[in-house]
From TrEMBL, chains A, C:
The lineage of its organism: Bacteria, Bacillati, Actinomycetota, Actinomycetes, Micrococcales. It comes from Demequina lignilytica. Keywords: Oxidoreductase. SMART domains: Transket_pyr. GO terms for biological process: branched-chain amino acid catabolic process; response to nutrient. It comes from the Bacteria. This is 3-methyl-2-oxobutanoate dehydrogenase (2-methylpropanoyl-transferring).
TrEMBL record, chains B, D:
This is Pyruvate dehydrogenase (Acetyl-transferring) E1 component subunit alpha. Gene3D superfamilies: 3.40.50.970. The gene is pdhA. Its cofactor is thiamine diphosphate. It comes from Demequina lignilytica. One of its GO terms (biological process) is branched-chain amino acid catabolic process. NCBIfam families: PDH_E1_alph_x (TIGR03181). Pfam families: E1_dh. InterPro entries: Alpha-ketoacid_DH_E1_comp, DH_E1, PdhA/BkdA, THDP-binding. Transmembrane segments: none annotated. The keyword Oxidoreductase applies. The keyword Oxidoreductase applies. GO terms for molecular function: magnesium ion binding; oxidoreductase activity, acting on the aldehyde or oxo group of donors, disulfide as acceptor.
Length: 337, 375, 337, 375
């Protein structure tokens, strides 16, 4: 066990994956000598050289598109998109090519490409640097989408994502990059070294976890919002409400089973994410909980997310994003039934 | 800057003119030097085969057996010439019209029609043939091709002088040159010195739009903007097509980096069977290009050389007929896999949503078996 | 009143808009002399000339991006994206630029760009020619998304979309292009000629309509699925179930009010769309109906859509897409409560 | 093909060298002929103002008053030169570093900081200044610029010879040239003969990546691939910057179509205040370029001409100080609009979702007023 920041855990996870498999190649803008604008790849260029840590031209479609070609020849490209808001030039390559090639080829071509994206807000940034685009990808079959909330998950899941034969969008909660936590480095190593490691790893990263047990209300979150959900649980506990927190970890697949099981116990569900509420991941979760646990629900599933506006200037982000008060307000509302 | 537009025939490399006469070119003749009559006959053979296949596919579409067909009519020389310049160690990224190159890569032509019958999106094993699946999103594959070429380079398959040396041939049309992706591919290839040949088949149209809507200079000139050497040639001349492609592939295979070649040709047929070219081009234009038919001029040459006999022509006709029959039978004989196969290969590992929907679908289908169709 | 196909109604609507306002410029691939691959712009090039009906280079990002610049100078570009599956190269321009410029400029810049997209399936086409991408855009604030289901709506709504100062994604149900219907051409003309016409037009195209009244179950659909919903209503009626059909018409904004009102009457809702169910528009609608009509619901809102797979080969599209049996099955299921 | 890489200083147009000496250029001197000492002093003035502003903004960022700052340090000559070549009838599409051009377009510099203080995304009236908002998605605005230019052409504002004739100046960096959008912009501009000048400020870096990661040939060469005339010049030379930009703008305004100009310059500061250039470039490199400082060389020249007096320098210093003070006061004085303003201007017409959320937010805020903050 060692203590790491979430960013540090990803860095260590990348290093472990590169040590494990010489076909793992990092590609992105400024990830080499600079170590990425968030320093997540710090030191890797020095230790693995410019052929394993590649500074690409400034073109996201080109980064994803060339990665697809490399993956066709057996490489495992791990890409960095510099900020959430800059993934869209690659949207065509991701949704029409990366996501569909396995299907198009009847399983003959697998594309184990990982796309790392520092995402979400709360860092006081300028436009396009604080967005949460997960729902814009989750509708497209062929992609997996995960987001770790803790250093341990960051360390494990980046390696599981790299081991998975499927393309994975790996969303890194950038406001949590400097959060520290204990990390056991041995568990994922033994998982991946075992027979069927890639399958086990894929399955594991696709499952949510109960981050805190409770009995009155289920609060569902992922990535940057898990910490908020835990704060909500604390605050609610002080008022006598017992909150169960589900950390989804995976958005595609969405581990609705874990949520539905919890919802059947609590009868009340609140979903939190930074992405706009409208047409967000919370909608899918709400719809599934209703479909599968309708007769257990005491109250409608409520959603707390960003608003249906562009991400505003950073001086407004604390009003725009879910915060303790807004989530507690939703908890109170579901508790009135 | 070239003063000529993108439809000019100035400065085209040509080694076999429309009258079936061989020409010399200081730079490229030597790349055609190994083309003896036997080799040319083989090319003629392939060109006739793919044209016959095209005809058959078109008629199957008319009969309602295919949803769509995309003819390569008129582009046989560009494709067969390039195809014969390829080595087994090379890898091709076609767009969706490269049936001629498919043939030279050992794809059994009727298999292509699985796509156009709506059975599947990809219809052959790309790795086995060194021939990637067709990509319908214009230009998207140019980046895959570049990445693949970079991977070949990493794998030590470039510039060693060994037979294992290879390069990527990436095909796209004149219209595709306007896509951002194609230009990004040129950038990635250039800065990384990728072993790739970008081959533009300028068939003068992107559906109804003439190449003048995509560029005001010849498309080969695009290369220079990225520091990529480029050549423009008569794509209806199979000898030039072979020679230029061979030069380009050798350049790339030997580690000298990317090349752009522009085959100036003409789409003699419709864009697809859904298209009606009479809406946007003249009979005169079509007649002009009919006189420049790539197969006819090779025939003239081979006949003049005494290399093409009536017997050979007859034999090719018989073979074409047989291919037609085999194609028809294959197409009509394909069984559609069960509906539940739509859930296969969405992911390489199980995905809960797909598995839940697959299970639901199985129950749903079973409910019909139990109860008969609803209502 | 005259009889038109849906495609013909759009053609007539475009012509009327071009007659009304010389700043309306059509742009797209093959829309000129050819009249578009579906002939929706047939005859307009001949009558308005190549400056009003522009054949563009083959680059969707370029089409949308240059249209933004033209709109900044007072033009109203009406774009055609040749097929649904080819809108993604323009995704960055649409979501980060077109959608956000009004906000970015504090309202100083309006971009009245209309993007026409023939969408949805059932035409036996090859890959990328049958998709329903509405949910991939509805999550992004700043865009309006509408889809007509009848020739009358097609005629009215294309003109309302063009009149609207906001960017509009105009989704044309291509399988319905040849459906015929009566069209009253005078109504929208007087709406647009009146004071505040653009506002009234925007508001009107943003509202759903009750396509058929009923009392047991609300079936919600839009675009190509409205016809199916009406067939379901007929079939259900034969079995004694009274189905109310809501034709949403607008996906952004989503007229959930109309649906919620209906849901409060019927207590049962089924949403139908061709797009994959997971993370689709149906999820948002289900979540809203639950939030706003929870205590009126007798059964969970059910969704019938495409599956979480790429759009399959056309020989499978009838299995992949919602059909009469699948929707009736959902109606039966909500009726069991 | 140019044998030199993208960082070569071969073939640069130069009219004022680093020693502050004027040079002649056969083609471009005449475009600088109208630059008398007064005009040059005005340019010097603007360059010093924007540099002073840059310094103030950097220190405000260090004090935590701004989230970020993007200095234009070192690029003043390229920007002020171009800015002085503009007419009021022209329209500029900047990227996000064109504070120098902003100044020449009458934007009150402190206003720019509203963006970097997180108050808003756009901070001036684009139409009023003929200067579009900053665009942070690299290259995206190049297409807007092209469309805008085409609209100017439609509006009869090109090639008439009248003062109303205008052109678009579109600015982007070396890194941006790799984006698909920029290449699509070149295509759309070329085939439509748009009145636009694409100005690449090659400051040798895209954050940490040297221009060699974007191209293997000089970026100006990109133009020829699209049939667009191009010129490469010393972007630290304000005289050349003015002359080349003037030529380019006249070319475009007069209806002769698009031009690409590459200002070869150097980003003397960090990419942004978040960046640490010592991670990826040497002190030696920075010193080399410090000797080529665009302001210093103009000063040398003007002093040698006796046109720049100590008094003038002092006066500029006072003005800079005053601007600094005004900037600090402005920044600290801006009031944040109420939170509910985030719902404004999402759409031009009411949108039900926004209105419902706005209403919810009002109720939610009111609940605090009633009950105090939760918990
Ligand atoms: C991104 C994208 N946009 C539009 C289309 C529709 N489309 C199919 S083929 C074609 C024309 C392509 O022209 P060109 O590149 O010259 O190739 P050709 O068909 O002439 O071989 C178009 C516009 C598409 N397939 N992909
Ligand atoms: C599409 C996109 N990708 C990545 C970024 C992040 N980013 C901001 S500036 C920059 C470098 C730009 O370099 P260049 O074009 O040379 O302009 P410069 O900053 O040097 O003026 C990058 C990668 C972005 N803003 N947009
Ligand atoms: Mg073509
Ligand atoms: Mg730069």
């Amino acid at each position: 066990m060692s203590t790491m920041t979430l960013a540090g855990a990803i860095n260590r996870g990348l290093r472990a994956a590169m040590d494990r498999d010489p076909k793992v190649v990092l590609m992105g803008e400024d990830i080499g000598q600079l170590g990425g604008v968030f320093r997540v790849t710090d030191g890797l260029w020095k230790d693995f050289g410019p052929d394993r840590v590649v500074d690409t031209p400034l073109a996201e479609s080109g980064i994803v598109g060339t990665a697809i070609g490399m993956a066709m020849r057996g490489y495992t490209p791990v890409l960095e998109i510099q900020f959430d808001g800059f993934i869209f030039p690659a949207y065509n390559q991701i949704t029409t090519q990366l996501a569909k090639m396995h299907y198009r080829s009847h399983g003959a071509i697998t594309l184990p490409v990982v796309i790392r994206v520092p995402y979400s807000g709360h860092i006081g940034a300028v436009e396009h640097h604080s967005e949460s685009p997960e729902a814009l990808f989750a509708h497209t079959a062929g992609l997996r989408i995960v987001s770790p909330a803790t250093p341990q998950d960051a360390y494990d899941m980046i390696q599981q994502a790299i081991a998975s034969p499927d393309p994975v969008l790996f969303l890194e909660p950038k406001a949590r990059y400097w959060d520290k936590g204990e990390v056991d480095e041995s568990r994922v190593a033994s998982q991946l070294d075992a027979d069927g490691g890639a399958s086990a790893a894929t399955a594991e990263m696709s499952r949510g976890r109960i981050a805190r047990e409770g009995k009155d209300v289920t609060v569902v979150a992922y990535g940057p919002s898990v910490r908020l959900a835990l704060q909500v649980a604390d605050a609610a506990a002080a008022e006598g409400t017992s909150v169960e927190v589900v950390d989804l970890r995976s958005i595609s697949p969405l581990d609705s089973d874990t949520v539905v099981r919890s919802a059947k116990r609590t009868g009340r569900v609140v979903v939190v994410h930074e992405a706009p509420t409208a047409f967000g991941a919370g909608a899918e979760l709400a719809a599934r909980v209703m479909e599968q646990a309708f007769f257990h629900l005491h109250a409608p599933v409520l959603r707390v997310g960003g608003f249906h506006t562009p991400y505003p200037g950073s001086k407004f982000e604390h009003d725009y994003l879910p915060n303790l008060d807004r989530v507690l307000d939703a908890v109170d509302r579901v508790m009135t039934h | 800057m070239d003063a000529h537009g993108p439809l000019s025939d100035q400065g085209l490399v040509q080694l076999l003119n429309r009258h079936g006469e061989r020409l010399e070119d200081e730079r490229f003749s030597r790349y055609a030097a190994d083309l003896d009559l036997e080799a040319l006959l083989a090319m003629w053979h392939d060109m006739t085969v793919v044209r016959a296949f095209d005809k058959e596919a078109t008629s199957l579409q008319r009969q309602g057996e295919l949803g769509l067909w995309v003819p390569s009519l008129g582009q046989e020389a560009a494709q067969i010439g390039a195809g014969h310049a390829l080595r087994e160690s090379d890898f091709v990224f076609p767009s969706y019209r490269e049936h001629g190159i498919a043939l030279t890569r050992g794809v059994d032509l009727p298999e292509i029609l699985r796509i156009f019958r709506g059975l599947q999106h990809g219809a052959w094993d790309a790795a086995e043939h060194g021939f990637h699946l067709y990509t319908l999103v214009i230009g998207a594959h140019s980046l895959h091709a570049t990445g693949y070429a970079l991977a070949m380079d990493r794998d030590g398959l470039v510039g060693t002088g060994a037979d294992s040396d290879g390069a990527v041939l990436c095909c796209f049309g004149d219209g595709a040159t306007s896509q951002g992706d194609v230009n990004e591919a040129l950038t990635f290839a250039a800065v990384n010195n990728a072993p790739i040949v970008f081959m533009v088949q300028n068939n003068q149209f992107a559906i109804s739009e003439p190449t003048t809507r995509q560029s005001r200079v010849p498309l080969a000139q695009r290369g220079s903007g990225f520091g990529i050497p480029a050549v423009r040639y008569d794509g209806n001349d199979v000898v030039a097509s072979y020679a230029v492609a061979r030069w380009a592939l050798e350049h790339a295979r030997s580690g000298q980096g990317p090349v752009l070649i522009e085959a100036f040709t003409y789409r003699m047929g419709a864009h697809t069977t859904s298209d009606d070219p009479s809406k946007y081009r003249s009979q005169a234009d079509e007649s002009y290009w009919a006189e420049r038919d790539p197969i006819a001029r090779l025939e003239t040459y081979l006949r003049a050389q005494g290399a093409l006999t009536d017997d050979a022509v007859d034999a090719a006709g018989v073979e074409a007929k047989e291919l037609g029959r085999r194609t028809r039978e294959a197409v009509k004989g394909w069984e559609r896999p069960p509906a539940a196969s739509i859930f296969d290969h969405v992911y390489a590992e199980p995905h809960a949503t797909v598995e839940a929907e697959r299970a639901w679908f199985a129950r749903y289908e079973a409910s019909f078996a139990d109860q008969g169709v609803h209502a």
